[in-house]
Design goal:
The structure is a single chain. The protein is an alpha+beta fold and about 300 residues long. About 40% of the residues lie in helices and about 15% in strands. The strands form two sheets. A six-stranded mixed β-sheet has the order 1-2-8-7-6-5, with helices on both faces. A two-stranded antiparallel sheet has the order 3-4. It is extended, with a radius of gyration of 27 Å. The two termini are about 55 Å apart. The longest helix has about 35 residues.
Length: about 300
């Protein structure tokens, strides 16, 4: 996954003339990924894992021995720094809508051993969102730039949650019949050793995965457009129950999809719907009604 991401970022770097900074999760805060981006002139902003450690640059003035000067000084457990809040500075939260909330932050320039060069660490203690340790290879970034960038990046997780539970974008079930079934204890499979017909079928299966998710994301985008630009129509068509309905605010994706399901048959009978498709759905509905009558 990391190599695939680096390859795509390399293409983006060739396409854009301006500088690029990648904002990623803690999974990507590893040496091979960050080093590969630095070689291409791309900086990284990432969250640090709970067991993250870094080293203070060694002060050569205190060295009196022979041989090569050490690179690393004392080791710092970043998570333990939150226990000594007297070193932290206080500022207003840079997150939109939190102009009255004060956060505590600490900026440190340290050397992670897995990277080997100087990097900036930003420790932020938020009264509602908790503590977080962020990392960036660009020493010129301020603490609020790093914190705000990761805040916007985390909004992707909210979209993922909606795609999973409201749209079902990752609920695909496309099986590749030529592949043999896996058993408990089976190790990795070598696709390049499989027959050519199996490889072709696997490529078709992967293509089906990608198409399914692409159509789901297109539908997700259309629901967002309806939520933003047709809020009044959505609320008027929504027949569910919510404790507090706010007509002046955009509805959620789940509310929009529920309103569309409730007004689907009404839309079929409207003059805006294609006649051929309306007849098709009407015939299916009649068959289902006849089946229910016989079953009842």
């Amino acid at each position: 996954v990391l190599d695939h991401s680096v390859k795509h970022l390399k293409y983006l770097k060739e396409y854009f003339d301006s500088k690029i900074a990648v904002v990623a999760d803690a999974l990507y805060c590893v040496g091979p990924f960050v080093k590969s981006l630095l070689e291409q002139g791309i900086h990284t902003i990432s969250r640090v894992r709970g067991n993250g450690k870094a080293y203070i640059p060694f002060d050569e003035r205190n060295y009196k021995g022979r041989g090569r000067r050490p690179t690393y000084g004392a080791c710092i457990d970043l998570k333990k720094l939150f226990k000594t809040m007297n070193r932290f500075n206080t500022s207003i939260s840079p997150i939109p809508g939190e102009g009255k909330i004060e956060v505590k932050y600490l900026e440190l320039t340290l050397i992670p051993k897995w990277l080997g060069v100087m990097a900036k660490y930003v420790l932020v203690s938020h009264p509602k969102r908790g503590n977080i340790v962020l990392f960036t290879t660009n020493l010129e970034f301020s603490w609020d730039d790093v914190y705000l960038s990761y805040y916007y990046r985390f909004q992707i997780e909210c979209a993922f949650k909606s795609l999973i539970y409201d749209i079902g974008a990752f609920c695909y079930r496309f099986w590749c019949k030529p592949m043999s079934k896996t058993k408990v204890g089976d190790k990795d499979r070598y696709v390049h050793k499989a027959p050519e017909s199996t490889v072709v079928s696997m490529k078709k299966t992967l293509l089906a995965y990608e198409k399914f998710m692409a159509f789901a994301m297109i539908g997700f985008g259309l629901l967002q457009c309806l939520s933003l630009y047709k809020s009044a129509e959505v609320w008027s068509s929504f027949d569910g129950w919510i404790r507090t309905i706010r007509p002046n605010s955009p509805p959620s994706i789940k509310t929009v999809s529920s309103a569309m399901r409730g007004s689907f048959f009404e839309f079929l009978n409207s003059k805006f719907f294609p006649l051929d498709i309306a007849k098709f759905y009407d015939s299916k509905r009649q068959k289902s009604e006849e089946f229910l009558e016989k079953a009842g």
